[in-house]
From TrEMBL:
Residues 249-321 form the ATP synthase A/B type C-terminal domain. It holds the Pfam family ATP-synt_VA_C. InterPro entries: ATP-synt_VA_C, ATPase_alpha/beta_chains, ATPase_F1/V1_b/a_C, P-loop_NTPase. Its main location: membrane. The keyword Nucleus does not apply. This is ATP synthase A/B type C-terminal domain-containing protein. Belongs to the ATPase alpha/beta chains family. Keywords: ATP synthesis, ATP-binding, CF(1), Ion transport, Membrane, Nucleotide-binding, Translocase, Transport. It is found in: Membrane.
Length: 352
């Protein structure tokens, strides 16, 4: 018998059978947020209501045995970008959704990922979106292959034959038309499972939707407050998720540090709202330590990017996951209490 912890939803089947999962879920009385959390593993299958699983199986026109499968170990792509690797790591071969309004830095993050992963021998493909968008030129510059149609993209992937891992970026319009789902099905049909897909919406409309891309392995939610305070990359740790940790528990130390950091950052944000209104003297003495460590942790999670060096005048920094875990643990344990917040902004690791 399978243990509940070993089970997960067959996300690829759901994606293929129910492309417009948000609308479909609502029609059968399911909350899109619940479906999203089940897909990423934030809600374990073992804790899901039976009626929810039955409704999803009905939508996908499949049996529960097809819908619920044994969780296999998910391989993580280490980006050496601190906040991504710690809170919402990339699932190799999975689908990543970026949720942001224009100007929040999502295209800079994509350009940086293309730059870093191309240097790690990934083949990088960009399916050109329609129209002109500020910052898109940086993504184009760092993509190895530019395609204009789903058919061109399939031909490029098929010609690779699975010999090289692929990073593929596409606009949400191709999700709405069903093109991405068809592409993924066709690629898997010829035995290629090495394509990691990034989905982006350049209009910003996805911010107002519960499940804008359908089932995902990784979700990066960008945050207006972080942008306003120039905390880049402005990916919100509290609302970004990944099946790498939630389902696979890739590394127990990683998971434990991530959960403790999330708790501190969540409380820091609550306290920061109080400080903004009434001043720091209104924070209870017992909470000052949490506030100060949350402030330093948030500053540490900023990072200079290689593709932005000309603009920021700061050298790009790559920080290994292990260094990030060690540094975050030290900050939470008080090792950085004596440092000014400004000393932790836009650095690599604590020793840099």
């Amino acid at each position: 018998m399978e243990k509940a912890d070993d089970l997960r939803l067959n996300v690829s089947l759901l994606r293929r059978k129910v492309p417009n999962l948000t609308s479909a879920a609502r029609l059968v009385g399911l909350r899109p947020a619940t479906v999203s959390n089940l897909c990423t593993g934030k809600i374990p299958v073992g804790r899901a209501e039976v009626r929810t699983l039955v409704a999803l199986a009905s939508l996908a026109d499949c049996s529960l045995d097809d819908l619920i499968i044994r969780a296999e170990k998910i391989e993580m792509i280490e980006t050496k970008i601190k906040t991504l690797d710690l809170f919402a790591p990339l699932a190799k071969g999975g689908t990543v959704g970026l949720v942001a309004r224009p100007g929040m830095g999502q295209l800079v993050v994509l350009a940086e990922l293309l730059y870093r992963l191309k240097n790690e021998s990934y083949k990088t493909i960009l399916l050109m979106p329609e129209g002109e968008h500020r910052g898109l030129s940086d993504v184009i510059e760092h993509a190895e292959i530019i395609t204009n149609t789903i058919e061109e993209t399939y031909a490029s992937i098929a010609s690779n034959g699975g010999d090289q891992d692929i990073i593929f970026i596409a606009d949400r319009t191709h999700v709405i038309t069903g093109g991405i789902q068809q592409l993924q099905e066709n690629v898997q049909g010829i035995g290629i499972h090495s394509v990691t897909t990034f989905l982006v919406d350049l209009t910003g409309e996805v911010v107002d939707e519960d499940l804008p891309y359908g089932p995902l392995e990784t979700l990066w939610q960008f945050d207006a407050d972080l942008v306003a305070r120039h905390r880049y990359p402005a990916v919100n740790p509290l609302s970004s998720t990944s099946s790498v940790l939630e389902v696979a528990h890739l590394d127990q130390e990683h998971f434990a540090i991530q959960q403790k950091a999330l708790k501190i950052l969540r409380r820091y944000r609550e306290l920061r709202s109080l400080v903004n209104v009434s001043g720091i003297e209104r924070i209870p003495t017992s909470e000052l330590q949490t506030y100060r460590r949350g402030e330093r942790l948030e500053a540490y999670l900023t990072q200079p990017f290689y593709v932005a060096e000309a603009f920021t005048k700061k050298l790009g920094q790559a920080v290994s996951l292990q260094d990030t875990l060690n540094d975050v643990k030290e900050i939470m344990n008080g090792a950085a209490d004596s440092k000014n917040v400004s000393e932790l902004e836009f650095i690599g690791n604590l020793q840099s």
